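pinned: reference chain
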Amino acid sequence: MNYLEFEKPLAEIEGKAEELRAMARSNPGMDVAKEAEALDKKAEVMLIDLYKDLSPWRKCQVARHPDRPHCKDYIEALFSDYTPLAGDRNFAEDHAVMGGLARFNDLPVMVIGHEKGNDTKSRIERNFGMARPEGYRKAIRLMDLANRFRLPVITLVDTPGAYPGKGAEERGQAEAIARSTQKCLEIGVPLISVIIGEGGSGGAVAFATANRVAMLEHSVYSVISPEGCASILWKDAEKMREAAEALRLTAQDLQKLGVIDRIIKEPMGGAQRAPKDTIAAVGKALDAMLKDLSGKKPEALIRDRRTKFLDMGSKGLAA
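pinned: its C-alpha cells
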C-alpha cells in the first residue's frame, strides 16, 4: 500500500499491526492477536476521521493516487469482447488514449479513455495519461464510428491535462482538443463520461462533453491543476492548497454548480483501498445512466447535450 502524505499516522499504525503479525508468523508460540486487533480498530477509526471531510487539496492527492484503478482496469472488469482500435489514420498511435468496441452488459458500445499506466515502463509508454493531438484525433475517429453504427459512447477520464510538448503544439494540440469537444456535441448517440481520477483542463473536456457526466467521490475536475493555477496567480506553486480551494474542483462543488450529474461513492479510504468495489460502483452508475438515455432520438440527445453545456455554471452560482 502506497500512503499519501496526510496518511502517515495511519501508515505507522497499520505498519505496527503488520509487524506484530509478521513476528507471530515467524514465532508460532507468540500470541499477538489482541494487540494487532486493537491496532486495526485504531487504524479504522483514524481512516474514517481522515476521510470524513477531505480538503480539496487532499482530494487532489487521492485522485492522483497510483493505486487507484485506471481505465484499463475498468475495461477489463466491466466490458466483454473488447476489441482495441488504434491510430488516428493521420500521424500515429497515442498510447495515452485507449479505446475500442466492446460490450457492456451485453450492449454493444464504444469505450474510450485516458490510461496513465501502473509502473515506470507503462507510465512512460502512456505518457502519464497526457494525450497528444493524435490521441484526440483517434477519439474523434472512434466517436464517428460509434455514431455511424448507433453505438453508445462511454468515456473514462483520467488525465492531468493534454500534453504541452513542442511536438504536440506543432501538430495542432488546441485544434485537436476543440474538434474532439465539437464531435462530442455532434454525435447522435448516448454519450456518458466518468471522471475516474483527474479531469485536467481541455484534455478532459474533450472526452467529457457528454449527456451524463459522473465523478468518483474523490476525483477532481478543473480548468487547470492547482500547482499551475498557483504558479500563474501567485508565482508560487507552493500555494496549491489555496488554489485547490478557489478552483472548486471537487465532485461535491461541481455537482452543486451543475457541471456534473452524479457522484459515485468510493470505499472508505478511497478507490485505491478497494479497487474491485469501486469498479463495481462505476459499473452500476454506467448501467443506470445508459438506461436513462435509452430510446432517446438522436436529435433529442444532441439538443439535450448542447443545452446542458450552454447552461453550465448557472446552477448554484449564488452558493
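why pinned: The chain has two domains: 1-23+32-53, 60-310. The two ends are 38 Å apart (CA to CA).
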